[in-house]
Sequence to fold (189 residues):
Amino acid sequence: MSIWELFIIAVGLSMDAFAVSVCKGLSAGRVRLGHALTAGIWFGGFQALMPFLGWLLGSRFQSFISSVDHWIAFLLLGLIGLNMVRESRSQEEEEVGASFTPKAMLPLAVATSIDALTVGITFAFLQLDQVDILWAVSLIGVTTFVLSAIGVKAGGIVGERGKSRAELAGGIVLILMGCKILVEHLGLI
Fold:
């Protein structure tokens, strides 16, 4: 997997965290640098940790399902992407408080990184020469850190409309990456 493909996946995975960061920025009132750094550390850290845990989990079962791994990768990325697209179209208001305490940030960080756990499982099903897991999780973590920090700072400017667009874009990216993996493994490209 090329650096650009990993970067595209990292951006796609970061969209949930970016959207929540925008909401945190909206609810914080006056946003300080500490708010942006706190969101970046929580979201970036969990977005790096979860795919690594997923990769560890998937690696344990790879030998049992190697004949259908490309289908699993396609389905997992497709389902995550479709869910993100669905959430982007939802009219439901998400309640995100103004607090940046660990008690407030931990559940948000876990919730926004569940998709990354699944992507880590997908990485385990790809050939080892296709994904360097340490490089991949580092890139995902750094990308999420940066986008989350920007999201908090931009919260007052972007508003709710930007949140929906970010989730939609992230979902489409993950669906396309799942399709690419499937098409490559089927030998169509």
In short: The radius of gyration is 16 Å. The chain has a mean pLDDT of 81.
